[in-house]
Structure formats: structure tokens, C-alpha cells
Amino acid sequence: MIEQGIREETSVYHEATNILHLGEEENDKYYDAVVPPIFQTSLFTSKTYEDFVKAINHAGDQYSYTRYGNPNFDILCKKIASLEGGDSALLTSSGVSAMSIAILAYAQSGGHIIAIRNLYGPTRSFLHYLEEKLNLQVTFISGDDVNELAAVIQPNTQLVVLESPASFLFNVQDLRKIAALCRGSGITTVIDNSNATPLFQKPLQLGIDVVVHSATKYLSGHSDTIGGFIVANQAQMEPIRRQHKLIGSSPAPFEAWLILRGLRTLPVRMKEHAKNALIIANFLESHPKVKRVHYPALSSFSQHELAKSQMSGFSSLFSFELDAASDRMVHFFNGLELIKIGLSWGGYESICNPLKVGFGSGFTEAQFSQMGITDQLVRLHVGLEEAGDLVDDLDRALRQV
Ligand SMILES: *Cc1c(COP(=O)(O)O)cnc(C)c1O
Question: Mean per-residue pLDDT for 48-60?
Fold first, then answer.
């Protein structure tokens, strides 16, 4: 009993402390090893009939089969649920599977979904896929104005899909207003919170129903694993849990162990990412060859005040537009020596790409222009290198343009 009392008190710790220790109170089960072992097993067996019944229901400390649950997953999920302030979290094999499962859990044949236009590409593609597959209708909006959302709600609207800050131009949605409107209309809200991380934005506390993360990005932070999370309170989680079970999208235990290894340093990494990003964004904003920087942390960003009202900090992913002819863009990218060219972000390394090229094929010029994506738009993830080295690298590349 006394021991239980002590454990309950652990909830008063700050989140940086919880990231390190929450969910690992029972390490006496693994010889008090400070790092949990990798439970690299597909199967857990039961000593008795009664234990098997518990294992099947994932009750107590009983497990049955890794697709349904594994100690490495549970340690992570307790930490992420606590960070987001939700009842529970689910771990999936990727951010894309987390988003697809969350959407599928609420999508219904013949129904209606509203989504912001500048969604992460594969999320948008999944919605188009559902349009064909389930004969449902998707309405895309900018997400910049809650009245625009109110105007497109239909009696059969089930779901609103958000991403704030969003991909490409990093525009933010007013999460409090959208949540209040949707709650009142019986519509479920889902947000991709990968960009802000739960350190800088806690959508459940603003009234959003379901939070999705790509753990591949900042949460793991080392560009060495892929994973995703879904976080929600009990009632909203029920259909998601069912969908997750049916899809069977659990990662391997080793991937969960890697995510945990990275997650432990999330607070210190995010501080450095944010500090570096502001230096780089200020440098770019004052550079004559840069037309515009799209970064919510800057006071020049049109939604800066709204962003500050719902976020407690800013990550290090943003975009900027060069003041250059389309055929000069190649010289910028090829002029970089330190900053890598690539798709992903959230790791220790700085990385950038020409956004339009990163999209691949399948989008028309009209769609690109509607999303605000030009040949000159560069997405930059500022890593943990010394800021001065990054400034020098960008300056060198900009001289080539
Ligand atoms: C990368 C990314 C995802 C997908 O995550 P994966 O782990 O690569 O599947 C989802 N949302 C956003 C905003 C992303 O950038």
C-alpha cells in the first residue's frame, strides 16, 4: 500500500522527469536494469488458465501476443499519453499508419470529412483513396478561419482532419475555436501534432479529440526508426483501438526501444532545435536573396499571435522562398555542403528539400498553386549542428543562386 502511495506521487513530477521515468516504476520485473530490455518476442505464455484469460484481455501485467501488446510499447504509451494529457496512447508502425487508423476509425461510407488543404501528402492521399473506396466526400479548406469551416459542415460530417502547424507554409488553425464548434456539432476532430511535439502543443487540452504523431520525427529524433502514436481519452479511443487491432499495425519491439532511447532527450533536443531555428530563420529573413520565411515563431508570420496563444514553443521545421528564377534553384541546393537534401525531418541533422520536387508526381500545377507551393519554396529542418556552421553553409549556397 505504501509503495502504491509513492507511485501515485510520481505524477506530480514535471514532464521532463516523467519522460525519463514514468512507466518504468516496475523495473524490478527485469532485475532493476536501468534501461528496459527489448522484449523481442512475438508471444507471451500463461502459467494458468486464469492468467490466460487475463492475458487475452491485456489485464493486470499479462501479455499474450506482441501485435496486441508488449512491455516496450506500454512504457512508451504511458509517457506519450501523459505528455499529451490523454487517457491512453497507442503505438503504431509509422506516423502514416497512425493517421490512417485514426481516420478510418471515424470514416463512414457515404459520410463527409473536412480536412485542411496543406496536409502532409500521404494523409491527403489517404483521404482521396477513401473518397473512392467508401464513396464518402472530402472538403478541403485553408483552415485559417473558423467561419470557413462552419460554412462547409454538413449533417453527415463525421470528422475534421487538422495539422497545425501544417506542412509547406506552416499555417496554424485556431484549435480552441475549431474544437468548440465541432464538439457542439458532434464532429470528431483529429490533429497531426508531429511538428509541434507534445512539449510545445497539447491539443487535447484545447478540446481536440484525437492526437496523432509520427514518432519518426522529433519524438525519436535520431533518423534511425519509424513509428507513430495515437492519443485520446477513453470514449474517443474505443473505435480507434478496435481499428488498430483489425489493421495489426504494431512495430517490432526493437523499434519501440529505439523510440524510447530517443524520447528520453526530447526536452533538451527541442530547446536546442528551437534556439538554432530562430537564429537561422532570422538570418534568412534578412538575406537579400530570400523573399519570405514561413515560420510561426517569427513576429512577421501573419498568424504569430494565434500560434503563441496555443503553443508554448516552436520546433525547427519551416519553409522559405528564394527570390530567384526557377532554373536557379538547383544552384542553391548543390551549393550546400553541410545541410543535406532529403525528405524527412526531426532528426539531429539539418536537412532541406525543394518542396515541389519532394511531392513527386500526381499533383497538378493548379493544386500546387492552391497549396501555395512554388518552385522557389524550400523546406528546412534545422538540426543540432552549431548555428554558425549552418549560417555559413546557407550563405555559401545562397551566393550560388
Ligand atoms: C513524416 C510525417 C508523417 C508520417 O510519418 P511516418 O512516420 O513517416 O509514417 C505524418 N505527418 C507529418 C506532418 C509528417 O511530416
Answer: 90
Name the pLDDT band for 11 (thresholds 50, 70, 90): low
Q: Is the peptide bond before 165 cis (omega within 30 degrees of 0)?
A: yes
Once rounded to an integer, what is the mean pLDDT over residues 51-80?
93
Pairing mode, if any, of strands 157-163 and 112-116? parallel
**Tally of structural domains, the chain:** 2
Within-domain flag for 5: no
Whole domain around residue 259: which residue ranges?
A: 15-263
Q: What is the mean pLDDT of the chain?
A: 95
Residue 107 identity: A
pLDDT tens for 303-338 read 999 999 999 999 999 999 999 999 999 999 999 999
Task: Verify that 389 and 244 share a domain, yes or no.
Answer: no
Q: How far is the CA of 245 from the centre of ligand 1 (A)?
A: 21
**Which runs of E-coded beta strand occur in 256-399?**
290-294, 317-322, 340-341, 351-354, 377-381
The residues lining ligand 1, judged by C-beta closer than 6 Å to any ligand atom, are 94-96, 120, 163, 167, 192, 194-195, 214, 216-217, 226, 228
CATH of the domain at 383: 3.90.1150.10
| Structural domain ending residue among the three candidates 237, 263, 289 | 263
Say if residue 177 is in the same domain as residue 314: no
